[in-house]
Known about the structure:
The complex is a heterodimer. Chain A is globular and about 100 Å long. In chain A, the strands form 3 sheets. In chain A, strands 1, 2, 3, 4, 5, 6, 7, 8, 9, 10 and 11 form an 11-stranded mixed sheet that branches. A 6-stranded mixed beta barrel of chain A has the order 14-15-20-17-19-18. Chain A is built from 29 helices and 22 strands. In chain A, helix 7 (94-122) packs antiparallel against helix 25 (746-780). Helices cover 52% and strands 16% of the residues of chain A. The mean pLDDT of chain B is 84. Chain B contains 5 helices and 2 strands. Chain B has helices spanning 8-20, 26-37, 43-56, 82-101, 105-109; strands at residues 59-63, 76-80. In chain B, helix 1 (8-20) packs across helix 2 (26-37) and helix 2 (26-37) crosses helix 3 (43-56). By secondary structure, chain B is mostly helical. In chain B, 58% of the residues lie in helices and 9% in strands. Classes of the chains: A alpha+beta, B mainly alpha.
Amino acid sequence: MSENRNIPPRWMNWLLELYCSKELLEDLQGDLHEYYARNLKKSRFKANAIFILDVIKFCRLYTIRKPKILGQMTFLNLMNNYFKTSARSLARNKLFSTINILGLAIAMSVGVLMITYISELLSFDTFHEKGDRIYRVQSTYSSISSPEPNDFASTSVFIGKKLKEEYSGFEKVLFMRRNFRADLNKGENTISIRGLYASREFFEVLSFGLVAGDPLTALSEPNSIVLTKKSAEKLFKDEEAIGQVVISGDQSYTVTGVAENLPKNSHIQFEALLSFVTLENRYADSETTTFFDWRSIWMNYVYLLLPEGQDPNVINGYLKDIAMVENAKTDRFKITHQVESLANLVPSQELSNQIGPSMSWTGIYQLVFLTLFVIVSACFNYTNLSIARSLRRAKEVGVRKVVGAGRYQIFTQFVFEAVIVALISVIISYGLFMLVKPFFMEIVIGSNDLITMNFQWVHVIYFIAFALFIGLIAGILPSLVLAKLKAISVFRDASSVKLMKGLNLRRVLIVLQFTMSIFLIIGSTIAYRQYKFALNFDMGFTTENVLNVSLQNNDSKILMTEMEKLPEVSKISRSGMIPNTGEIWGEEIKYKDPLDSADVFVNFVDKSYFSTHEFTFLAGGSFPYDQEDGDAKFVVVDELLLKRFSFESPQSAIGEVITVSRRLEDLKLEIVGVVNEFQYTKIHSESEPVALIQGTPEDYMHLNLVVKTNDVVAFMDKLEAIWAEVDRVHPFEAQFYDDLIQESYNAQATLFKIFGFLAFLAISIASMGLLGMAVFTTETRRKEISVRKVLGASMNNLMFILSKGFMAMLLVSALIAMPLSYLFFSEMVMADFVNRITIGPVELLSGVFIVFAIGILTIGWQTSRAAKTNPADMLRDE
Amino acid sequence: MKGTNLGEFEEIVLLTIASLMSDAYSVNIVDEIAEVTGRKTKLGVVHAVLNRLEKKGLILSELGEPTKERGGRRKRFFQISHAGKVSLMKAKEQRDRLWNNIPELVFQDIR
């Protein structure tokens, strides 16, 4: 006990050990202990205090342990040496270096692409000064008819008001609403703009700057409008914009501000902002409006600016309380709210009703996942070839070890080499990236022009880090193998260190590579087939030669009469929406039982709609006349609706009356016709009953022209001329139905293209790897081949012997990839698709076939070359 | 030639090492200096000087045998090297010459 008490507490010792260099530590610590023992006679406290003080005082330049790197003066020399040997080794084996560098570069170009894309997405909305305190109220909605809860970026005005009026803990509550569209008139000039409604807090919460006008009051008065600089210049040319009055239909707005042109990296984009109070006033007097309802969560956005240090969970608590009270009032639907910080809006979780452009994390993960496939494959190449060739380097390692290199140093050397290769690759990959970029921009980003993918200096750091990472991943296995080599066995008998060690590992890696390639090829085949399937799907009506002209709020009657006169137009009709393009309109419909209502998809059409689209009637026919004013009277329904309301036969439904709740009125509609089931939704989602309701002029959004012409361009010019007479503001918009459908299945096309592209990369990388391995094997077995040849082996024999190992590996990958991709696509990706292709042997074998063909070509090329060599050349020296 | 001359404290430490003979290690040196000169030197200061002297090659050091004290840690014993001896002698010689140059009457005027 008393012995122990002479020693200072352990942690104090440790304090000294922390910094003191090894040579000085023992003696110094001894000295301090001696002093400690001496000071103990005074008091323990004093002794402790002096000890600590001394430890601190001893912390001088000469006592401090030198960092290892600085300590080894040889480090830089070694690096120099590593660099030289790496460069020589790369230069000596041109084929293998090319395969390694090119393979990595191809894969890394996709990585570089991802880095650029994701770093750009992450830069979204980082410019808001108060960004860390801005939160958005989001909604989750579920109802009886769709019990699966859905998340929405939008929310109700109700919840914003409630928070603002009854709760505290916010600095500002900002209201916004999307879909502000107007044609602004100023004298001769008219421009068509899209924007947002926003409350007065807009410029205080978000950091959008104003060129002119007062940010605090610009949006505080009704009918105040803020234009962006660009739109203001278009409308007013050189005139001062502030204070001008612009006309839009029967409304007039005063320009109270001009906003700086918007940064591209924001999820809030607008050409104009109209004060939110305008809307509030408009709806305040109406008794029937749902604007202020708890349920109206589809169009509005509420952003909160919290005070410094406020915990957003408190707000979530408030929202929960409010939801509890409100949800108790009805059991038909359930709404809950939660706040999300501005930083998590782009990229966001999966959300509907976004206020502006966004990208979900799921999409990003998918892209990253697919990219990793290719990158990992390229890393495997490096690993494989390096391990295979490790015998060539064994002597070098042996010499190094004899001279005194440790395992760690050998390991460092070969990782260093891999990193050099990766760094060279990343430079090449940037070139490839520039080639791939336009392709990527077109198919993945599409029409979204907010993503620029421009170079930024910070990317250089990311790219270098990326290269280091890839180098490490690719180099770690071969480095470990080489570091483990024993010098003595290398020198005693080089053949004893044969490549047997890494052989199984290499086989596994090759099999994995080809499994991935086959998987990607199968994926692209399936995506392509599904895409074609969707385009050629029998929709139950005809879309051929149907041209849809967007009305853009013009009078349908005038346009129709004018266009009908054209000789190329054989039939013409009007409709609200266009089925099978992703758009969905829904209403609640009741039959006899007032409590039994069905959610039904609807469209508003005129009487000739059925003939332009060649619908097949099971009973009855089209509407007797077109309703040009007043309410709709008739409806045509499809088979599913009959089933829903249990009609016995199509005939029995004719003349029956169903009720539609529209614009807060109950409309009684008489069924005049029944059509067979047709494709209203996109083909992979569930069909619901459809009602085609007699349209009234305000329902129509499109003209449907059946066109017969050989000269589409000239015909379009004629249409455009007619259009220009009626509407001078909006550009003419028309598209053939088939093109529209094709566009709406772009997602499938994109999927196919991405899969196809990655499959192409993966297969090129994998076959490069295979080529490398084939070259290597034939090289190492040259003598064996020669001996066999001398003994009378035929060419075919030799090729079989040389390639059977590879063929077995390909076979194994095929056996793994086929069931795997079947499960993945059939059970996961397309599990929810209602109409889909069946994945059969054709799709599955396509990938296998392609990979086998490429594999056989690669191996065959090498083995035949080896088999053709003259054995005399080889064995002459033996 | 600043480097070849000894500092005052360096000289004291060197002399102390010489006088302690085979028993010169850091704690002992501090104690001895305190006893002879009456200066309360800190271990850290002496340690730094020892380190410096060793770098200049004026002293040599080696670790002794472990003992029971100091938690079993070995002491580092110092002894004067040849260079150390030379520079001490030189310092003494310089001083002697200076002393010799002073006529006795100089001190007579100073009380």
